[in-house]
Write a structure and sequence with these properties.
single chain; about 170 residues; mainly alpha; three-stranded antiparallel beta sheet; 3 strands
Amino acid sequence: MTDPNQLIEDYEQRTAALLEQAEEAKSRIATLTGAATSTDGAVTVSVSAGGALLGLSFGTKADEMPKDRLAALVMATAKRAQAQAVGQIATIMAPLIGDNSEAMQFVQSQIPPIDVPDEPAPAAPQQFVVNEEQQDAAATRPAPPRPARRPVEDDDTDFDQRSLFKKEGGW
C-alpha cells in the first residue's frame, strides 16, 4: 500500500516544478524579441513580440535609397522580425504543455497572425534615354558651368549721418 503522505509530497513537488516552469516560460515570453535584416543589408530591425521597435540600424545601401522605399523596407523588415519573435512562443510553451495538446492549440489560437509583406522591389533608374548615342553623350558631357555671381554694389553712403526726423532726399 502507498503512503498517502508520500503521494501528497510527490504531487506538491511536481506542482512546484510545473509552477517554476510556467514562471520561466512567462518571463521568456515577456522578453521575447525578434530581429531581421533586409535581403540587401540596408535595414536591420529588432522588435518585441508585440511589434514595439527596440532597435533600428541602416547599412550603407540605405544611403542610396529613396526615402519612400527605405520606409517600406523598414516596415517589411520589422514585420518579419515580429513574426520571428511570435514564432518563438510555441517553442517556449511546448515543453510545458505539449506539442499537440489542446492547451497548445489554445495558445496558438491566441497568437494573432502577422501579415509579412514582401520587401519592396528596388526602384528602377529614373533616366530616360532615347538611344545609345545620347546615353554615351550624356555620360561624357561635362556639367554646364555655373553662372557667374553678380558683384555686390558697395554703397558708400553713410546713413547714420541723416536725421530720422528730417525729410532728406525726398521721401
